[in-house]
Design goal:
The longest helix is centred in the last third of the chain and has 29 residues. Helices cover 56% and strands 0% of the residues. By secondary structure, the protein is mainly α. The chain has 3 helices and no strands. The termini are far apart.
């Protein structure tokens, strides 16, 4: 039920992380074009929900990174 790659979805710059599968998994890929297609459907709120979840995930990672920087500054 997890996901990764949300930073690359928002900003296609250099990668900031890697993913390693440690057991059997089914992976799905969702392109920017597919999200654009969802967003173009006025009756489908799926794209808006997805973008909200991505934004929440990015905010969580930003808070965690900031906390780690503060921890390292005190070290």
């Amino acid at each position: 039920g997890g996901y990764f790659g949300e930073t690359a979805f928002v900003d296609p710059g250099p990668r900031s992380a890697a993913a390693v599968v440690t057991r059997d998994a089914t992976l799905l890929s969702l392109s920017r074009a597919a999200i654009g297609d969802l967003a173009d459907k006025p009756t489908d709120g799926a794209a808006h929900v997805l973008l909200l979840r991505l934004a929440q995930s990015l905010a969580k990672h930003l808070r965690q990174a900031r906390a780690e920087v503060h921890r390292l500054e005190r070290w």
